[in-house]
């Protein structure tokens, strides 16, 4: 099979297309014929060697994929060869940037027929992150107001759709007119242009001076101190993304009895992941979840995908197709 292999940490050019042996399914495992693989920022951080948790070299990147079941290991039930699936996570030694991937059976989930493989590959990290941030870390409730920073990106669109479906009022931010239009289409009541100075000043009039109950924060090193200003009493900020340090005034948390919550999908328990993907399947079947694809690139262009994922201005998800 063809697969992307990283033999040294470094820039995008270390992503090399190679011929590798096909994986085999051990007990409790499934081999998936991959049709699309999601590209996530964390994969670029790992590839660079600057991430806290690094895999042993060489390795094949990627944890999000969609395709069809090709082989079943012993003790696997509930799946058949040819079943359309998506997966979040791969078995040790495997990776999503490949024509075939080996997954543990609990990592594999049915993909409804109306969802494309490209959309399926956009589910794992973006929608898992958004769901855990909203409903596990922040305990979001119907009737609350949520501000989603970077709402036109993969996690942002997911958060908008999930929050709206759960009965929250959504205010999003985007950096372009096209991004703002996309965010409105997917359920945001208002969209602010985060490239404009003082854009968060609009939060007070939009909320009758009350502020927002919840902020989903994609770039905490830029926004966190101002997020604390726009929170309502007992509001919460969930930090999903960050690229550096920031100085904040902790007195702001005291004034509103507010909370700053860190969130990383890697810390989700097996039970949490089961809840998340059960909810995502419900949303897919109800058609309240509709992943947006920004760009499709062939597997051989993984380096270009890693360059693109680190640039601002995404309108949905970047995926590799096989």
What value does the average pLDDT take?
97
The number of helical segments is 10
CATH evolutionary superfamily of the largest domain? Medium-chain alcohol dehydrogenases, catalytic domain
CATH fold-level label of the largest domain:
Quinone Oxidoreductase, Chain A, domain 1
Helical content stands at: 25-40%
CATH class of the largest domain: Alpha Beta
Tell me what the structure shows:
This protein is of the alpha/beta class and 322 residues long. It has ten helices and 15 strands. It folds into two domains: 153 residues, Quinone Oxidoreductase, Chain A, domain 1; 141 residues, NAD(P)-binding Rossmann-like Domain (Rossmann fold). Strands 3, 4, 5, 6, 7, 14 and 15 form a seven-stranded mixed sheet that branches. The protein has a six-stranded parallel sheet with strand order 10-9-8-11-12-13, sandwiched between helices. Strands 1-2 form a two-stranded antiparallel sheet. Helix 3 crosses helix 4 and helix 3 packs across helix 9. The longest helix is centred in the last third of the chain and has 17 residues. The radius of gyration is 20 Å and the shape is globular. The protein starts with a strand and ends with a strand. The mean pLDDT is 97.
């Amino acid at each position: 099979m063809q697969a992307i292999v990283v033999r040294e940490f470094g820039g995008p050019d270390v992503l090399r297309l190679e011929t590798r042996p096909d994986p085999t399914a051990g007990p409790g495992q499934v081999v998936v014929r991959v049709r699309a693989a999601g590209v996530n920022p964390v994969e670029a951080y790992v590839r660079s060697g600057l991430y806290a948790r690094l895999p042993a070299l060489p390795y094949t990147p990627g944890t999000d994929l969609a395709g069809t079941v090709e082989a079943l290991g012993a003790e696997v039930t509930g799946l058949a060869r040819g079943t359309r699936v998506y997966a979040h996570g791969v078995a040790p030694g495997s990776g999503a940037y490949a024509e075939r991937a080996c997954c543990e059976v609990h990592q594999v989930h049915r993909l409804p027929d109306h969802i494309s493989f490209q959309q399926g590959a956009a589910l794992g990290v973006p929608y898992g992150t958004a769901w855990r941030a909203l409903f596990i870390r922040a305990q979001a409730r119907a009737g609350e107001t949520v501000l989603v920073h970077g709402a036109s990106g993969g996690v942002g669109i997911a958060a908008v759709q999930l929050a709206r479906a759960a009965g929250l009022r959504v205010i999003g931010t985007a950096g372009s007119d096209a991004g703002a239009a996309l965010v409105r289409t997917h359920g945001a009541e208002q969209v602010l242009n985060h490239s404009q100075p003082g854009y968060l000043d609009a939060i007070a009039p939009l909320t009758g001076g009350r502020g927002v109950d919840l902020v989903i924060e994609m770039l905490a090193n830029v926004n966190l101190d101002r997020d604390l200003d726009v929170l309502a009493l007992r509001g919460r900020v969930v930090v999903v993304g960050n690229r550096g340090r920031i100085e904040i005034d902790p007195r702001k948390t005291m004034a509103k009895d507010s909370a700053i919550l860190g969130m990383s999908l890697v810390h989700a328990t097996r039970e949490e992941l089961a809840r998340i993907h059960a909810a995502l399947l419900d949303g897919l079947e109800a058609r309240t979840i509709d992943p947006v694809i920004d760009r499709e690139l062939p597997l051989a262009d993984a380096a270009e995908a890693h360059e693109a994922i680190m640039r601002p201005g995404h309108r949905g998800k970047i995926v590799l197709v096989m």
